[in-house]
Amino acid sequence: MRSRSLLIFLILFAGGGVFLQGQQGSRPTPHFYNVDTEQQVEGVIREILFEPRYEDRASFLILILEEKKSRDIFRAEISPAWFFDHDLHAGENVKIIGSVYANQDGVRFVIARELQSAGETFLLRDNRGFPTWRGGKMKRAGPRKGRGF
Question: Which of 15, 52, 138, 142 is the most buried (most CB within 10 A)?
Fold first, then answer.
């Protein structure tokens, strides 16, 4: 009888932990760049946010982007806020190439490798998805190209 009570307690405790994890939803589970899921998303910036993404790290620049064709909403993870030194504005058209995924709630995310804005291209990650900000704050938003989109 005692072992049965203990078993029921453990099941409820574990279930409660899963429930509480689902309630924390303000920060997505860290997702890593996957070159196999790379896509191009072109759209309009609806909102600009700065959010913590990885524990004990600087806030990230996040763009809420409405895709032009489908009108789907994406949360685009650009880079640490200290790294990206270009002004972006709500209503601005941008093109992002990056790793796309959806969380368990169906929210769509894109981890940006390249961002095109106002005729400039910002290289945020290399072709394998490794961040160009590796090496710390002495670096700034990767090489720029003056090509339009």
Answer: 142
